[in-house]
C-alpha cells in the first residue's frame, strides 16, 4: 500500500459547547485526488483549518509524511509541503500577479528546497506557475484587473508557488460559469497529474464527480462515508443528508 501522505486520527474541535468536528479520521495516500463534501456547516472548512494550522483542534492528531504537525502554525505547515487555497481569494492588492507568486515562492519554496533561489530561477519558476494556471499573459496585471475565474486561478497559483505535496482547494469554483468550472477542474487534475496530491472541497457536485478518485462526506462534524465516488453518493446516509429526509 502507498505510504499515507496525510493521516488524520480522531480530530475533534468545539466552538464553545458546539461540536464542529467529532473524531474525524482520514488517511490520504500520496498522489490521490480526494473530494470532501458535506452540507453547509458540516465542518469541512473547520477540518481544513485544523489541517492547515489556522485552528487548533482539541483532540486527535494530524500527521504529514508521518510527522505530527501539533504546534506548527500555517506557515510552517506550508513549508513542510501542505498548502491550501482560500474560499475568498486574498491576493496582495498592491502587488502585480507575478509579485503575488513571488512571495510564497521565496518564502516557502526556498525553505523547502533548502537554498536561496537566484533571480533567474525565481523568474523562471514564476513563469512556470503562471503558465500552469493559464495566467501567463496576466503577469504584469494587478489583482483588481482580474476576472473572477482568473482571481480563483491566482489563488491556486499562490498555493502552488509554495511547491506543495498536498494542495487543499477550498471552494475554488463557487459562482463560476459551467465552462469556468470545467477549466478549474482541468487545472486541478493537471496539478495532480504533475504529482501533487489534491483535496477539493466543493459544493458543485458535477465538478466533484469529475475530479474525485475518492469521496469523503462530512455531516455534523462526523465522517459518514469515504470511498469510491459513485458508491458514496448512493450511500443512504449521504442521500438523507443531501435531500434532508
Ligand atoms: N469560529 C467559529 N466560531 C463559532 N462557530 C464556528 C466557527 N467556525 C465555524 N463554526 C461553526 O462550525 C460549524 C462548521 O462550520 P464550517 O465552516 O466548518 O462548515 P462547512 O462545512 O465548511 O460549511 P460551508 O459549506 O457552508 O462552508 C458551523 O455550524 C459553523 O457555524
TrEMBL record:
UniProt superkingdom: Bacteria
InterPro entries in alphabetical order: AAA+_ATPase, ABC_AA/LPS_Transport, ABC_transporter-like_ATP-bd, BCA_ABC_TP_C, P-loop_NTPase
Organism: Rhodoplanes azumiensis
Residue span, ABC transporter domain: 6-245
Keyword set includes 4Fe-4S: no
Molecular function, one GO term: ATP binding
UniProt-listed PROSITE patterns: ABC_TRANSPORTER_2 (PS50893)
UniProt KW keywords: ATP-binding, Nucleotide-binding, Transport
Nucleotide-binding recorded as keyword: yes
Protein name: ABC transporter ATP-binding protein
Source species taxonomy: Bacteria, Pseudomonadati, Pseudomonadota, Alphaproteobacteria, Hyphomicrobiales
PANTHER family found in the cross-reference section: AMINO ACID ABC TRANSPORTER ATP-BINDING PROTEIN, CONSERVED COMPONENT OF ABC TRANSPORTER FOR NATURAL AMINO ACIDS-RELATED
SMART domains cross-referenced by the UniProt entry: AAA
